[in-house]
Amino acid sequence: MLDGKSALVTGAGSGIGRATALAFAREGAWVAAADLTLEAAQRTVAAIEAKGGQAVAIAVDVTDDAAVQAMVAAAVSAFGGLDCAFNNAGIAPHQVNAGGVLMADMPEAAWLRLLEVNLTGVWRCLRHEVAQMRQQGGGAIVNTASVAGLVGLPGAAGYVAGKHGVVGLTKAAAVDHAKENIRINAVCPGYIETPMTEESKRRRGDAITARTALGRFGVPEEIAEAVVWLCSDRASFVTGSNWTVDGGYSAL
Ligand code: NAP
Predict the structure, then answer these.
(1) Radius of gyration over every alpha carbon of the chain, rounded to an integer in angstroms
(2) Do residues 140 and 235 make contact, with C-beta atoms less than 8 angstroms apart?
(3) Which helix (H) or strand (E) holds 55?
(4) Catalytic residue of the set 159, 191, 229, 243
(5) 212 lines ligand 1 (CB under 6 A)
(6) Is the CB of 4 inside a 6 Å radius of any atom of ligand 1?
(7) Which of 3, 23, 131, 247 could form a disulfide with 28 if both were Cys (CB 3.0 to 4.6 A apart)?
């Protein structure tokens, strides 16, 4: 589905990003795997190469604009262009010591950090990717939002606000850049088994699966399939949309 295309993934060292980097490569893309640590990105590159794919590892902190610009430049220099991008790096409330904290009790620093990584980080990636794609005549981008971008979740106000922001940013960016032949969509995962959800699975896994129509957590590969399709030419009339892949969580 992606033969001859180049694809960039942030958060590629773990979870959904890693599975999507592998799926991009399986579908024929050259992959630029970017993550906070070079080692994590390199592990994904090694897995891609072990299956005969081509990939490069890039270290990036999406809160650092110069690093994001350099990431896009590195992907372009490795593969001669940028056809697809998956802006997926993100953090959960418990990673800023705000897991389960009610909105009014949340420290400002935790609020700002969640928005900085999860929303502004996506905006930074988008603007540098669009700058490249408009020069080469088009491209396709997917941002990772969440069911938390569609409904409220308890004790997660900063995360929910950031993910609703990603849904809005995706629509606005899609409208702004459609005439430049750049498609921009979001994917909204439900609860997926990754390092990010290990703690919530331990604490309230039963409640989450009971609340999910399909009665289980998803696996990262199930998100990757939607992202591959959205980035492929088969989705040529799809832009500004949110793809919910949540086992029916938001349908209940
Ligand atoms: P994950 O396994 O923790 O992977 C996230 C990756 O992003 C990690 O490799 C992490 O690096 C990296 N990262 C964190 N901060 C970064 C930064 N400032 N710059 C660059 N990379 C950074 O989590 P995941 O579950 O795959 O989550 C991926 C995305 O899906 C996130 O946006 C998350 O909000 C979203 N999501 C997840 C679920 C779920 O149930 N898992 C549901 C809905 C949405 P470190 O490990 O070094 O911190």
Answers:
(1) 17
(2) yes
(3) strand 55-59
(4) 159
(5) no
(6) no
(7) 3
CATH number listed for the domain at residues 6-247: 3.40.50.720
Nearest CA to ligand 1 atom 17: 61
b/e burial code for range 122-156 (CB count within 10 A of at least 16 → b): bbbbbebbbebbeeeeebbbbbbbbbbbbeebebb
Give the predicted TM-score (pTM) of the model. 0.99
Q: Where are the domains of the chain?
A: 6-247
Per-residue pLDDT of 79-100, as tens digits, reads: 999 999 999 999 999 999 999 9
Known catalytic residue at 159? yes
**Best residue among 9, 16, 143 to mutate for probing ligand 1, ranked by most atoms within 8 Å of CB:** 16
Q: How far apart are CA 195 and CA 133, in angstroms?
A: 32
197-206 tens-digit pLDDT: 999 999 999 9
In 10 A of CB 234, how many CB atoms?
11
